[in-house]
Amino acid sequence: MISLIVHGGAWDIPDDVVKAHCNGVRKALSIGWKVLTSGGTAEEAVERTIMYLEDDPTFDAGRGSFVNAIGEIELDASIMNGTSYRAGAVAAVQNIRHPISLVRLIMNNSEHIFLAGDGAARFAKEHGINQCRSEELLVGRELERWKELQKKKGFLTKDAFHKKGPGDTVGAVALDSYGTIVAGTSTGGTPKKYPGRVGDSPLIGCGTYADSRIGGVSSTGWGESIIRVVLAKTVIDIMENNGNLPHEAALKGIDILHSKVDGLGGVIVLNKDGVPAVAFNTPRMARAYRTSEMNECLVGIEPV
Ligand code: ASP
Asked: Would you list the domain boundaries of the chain?
């Protein structure tokens, strides 16, 4: 069995951008699927899938990311290999076109797991990834949003998840033909975030977790709530103890997020056999998945 599941964020995605979200996750999935079916690794599939989403300005990752309170774009990302238990992560890094490639490099070419800010950019440069110009990441839609938000005094991060907004974190979980599960997540964070604010996405166990003996998870949503319940690892722990049932684990994880910290968000999950599941408590969540038992991919955005 090979399997791939992708998400493009859990928010109140407006009607006029539903199509762009569905097309984005479908295309990203097809790229990762090609990698897996031609014998590629889950690491490569997750990287290639997320690279596509980082380039698609529809999503809040790479190009199209939200702008922080002082007009900068700071990116967070992480990846974890569930067989080696190695991981790579960056936070608040600037001017990097593909943070997912950088975290894969850190995972495989560094003794560390997590690099932040200038150090992450320095590591990128040393390994042949040059910083890009800010204009390559900033799109007009986000500049306009930033200007609007500057006028609003009491805007809180959580508000963004209640209000309609087109930007979304991206993530992917893959099971390859060698039995390895890899999960990855990439984001520009939340609109008007305080400079240096780090959400759940780069935190191993919160935004991303993989254990090839149990499964893999990528989370999205209000990071300040996801961190407090260590959402990705919580879902993995539930699955370890519920007979490896991914759907039940995903639902329970979101239930914990809601009931304990009034959280908002969603998770994509693969169990160790590659059975996919999704759960969220926001109005919509863009996602797509395919397994070797399916003839085509399934794309969804509405609640199941
Ligand atoms: N979880 C991300 C953060 O809080 C945002 C998102 O998933 O849309 O940075």
From this structure: 3-289
- Cβ of 220 closer than 6 Å to ligand 1, yes or no, is yes
- Domain 3-289 fold is Glutamine Phosphoribosylpyrophosphate, subunit 1, domain 1 (3.60.20)
pLDDT at 153: 76
Q: Quick check: 9 and 41 in contact, CB under 8 A? A: no
Strand, helix or coil at 208? strand
Q: Please tell me if the CB atom of residue 190 comes closer than 6 angstroms to any atom of ligand 1.
A: yes
Distance 8 CA to ligand 1 centre (A): 11
Token pair in block for residue 129: 């990834």
Nearest-angstrom CA–CA distance, 99 and 74: 10
Q: Return the pLDDT at 12.
A: 87
The secondary structure of residue 12, as a DSSP letter, is: B
Q: What stretches of 110-251 adopt beta strand conformation (E)?
A: 114-116, 170-175, 181-187, 208-211, 215-221
- Please report the atom of ligand 1 found closest to the CA of residue 222: 4
Which pLDDT tens digit goes with each residue over 148-199? Answer: 888 887 777 776 666 555 458 999 999 999 999 999 999 999 998 999 999 9
Cα(219) to centroid(ligand 1), Å = 8
Q: Is the CB of 32 under 6 A from ligand 1?
A: no
Structure confidence at residue 160 (pLDDT): 65
Quote the pTM value. 0.96
C-alpha distance across the termini of the chain, in Å: 24
157 noted as active-site residue: no
CA 58 to chain centre: 14
Active-site residue identified among 41, 58, 157, 169: 169
| Ligand 1 neighbourhood includes 180 CB (under 6 angstroms) | no
State residue 70's pLDDT score. Answer: 94
